[in-house]
Amino acid sequence: MIRIAPSILSADFAQLGTEIKKLEAAGADMIHIDVMDGHFVPNLTFGPPVVAALRQFTALTFDVHLMVNNPQDLIAPFARAGADLITVHAETAPHLNRLLQNIKETGSKAAVALNPATPLSMVEEVLTEVDMILVMSVNPGFGGQKFIPSVLDKLARLRHELDKRKLTVDLQVDGGINAATAPQVIAAGANILVAGSAVFGAPDMKAAIAMLRNAE
């Protein structure tokens, strides 16, 4: 089953609570929350207090994507704020196994993200430790970027490896997801699609989410 995780990076920041209610009514499966620190990526976004404030608006899964240096310092604060799933970047974690265990100890699910140029070998040794792998199809830091086609082969290779090992690990893709690219990433093996402008920029949010979910 394909799940859609709209990214509130493309939402109206002055109306985040209302935007989340709209997403839930429109059929979103998860809420993707991009956390940026201005160091790992050149932007600043949400901290734990914002996530805690938004938690009251929905029971949907909060999918918190830590695009930060020193993610170990933010795992517990975001878990307390209401994160159901916490994703860390392999590029920031020399002790990735320990970091994933730290996430699970909070009660949240654990995931690892890979930038477009980061090889799959970075996660080969932790595939049995994760609930999800996030493959970035743009370089992180900004919304509205163009999809990088070479990521399709990477997705397909990762899906093959997960299936070969009989692992029930979700495969998420984030960046440039729209009506044209959604069928391609689903065909490559992704089952969770993060979408920003394709949802928030659509005249009908519910129709946009349904279109992405049924794009295969």
UniProtKB/TrEMBL annotation:
What does the record give as its pathway? Answer: Carbohydrate degradation
Q: Which major enzyme category is it?
A: isomerase
What is the catalytic activity of this protein? D-ribulose 5-phosphate = D-xylulose 5-phosphate
Binding of substrate occurs at: S7, H65, G141, F142, G143, G144, D174, G175, G176, G196, S197
The UniProt entry, under Pfam families, shows: Ribul_P_3_epim
Query: What are the GO BP annotations of this UniProt entry?
Result: pentose catabolic process; pentose-phosphate shunt
Residues reported in the UniProt entry to bind a divalent metal cation: H32, D34, H65, D174
What cofactor does this chain's UniProt record say it requires? a divalent metal cation; Fe(2+); Mn(2+); Co(2+)
Question: What positions does UniProt annotate as the active site of this protein?
Answer: D34, D174
> Per UniProt, which keywords does this protein have?
Carbohydrate metabolism, Cobalt, Isomerase, Manganese, Metal-binding, Zinc
Give the GO molecular function terms: D-ribulose-phosphate 3-epimerase activity; metal ion binding
A Gene Ontology cellular component where this protein is annotated is: cytoplasm
Q: What is its EC number?
A: 5.1.3.1
Q: What does this protein do?
A: Catalyzes the reversible epimerization of D-ribulose 5-phosphate to D-xylulose 5-phosphate.
- State the NCBIfam families in the record: PRK05581.1-4, rpe
Give the UniProt family note. Belongs to the ribulose-phosphate 3-epimerase family.
What this protein is called in its record is: Ribulose-phosphate 3-epimerase
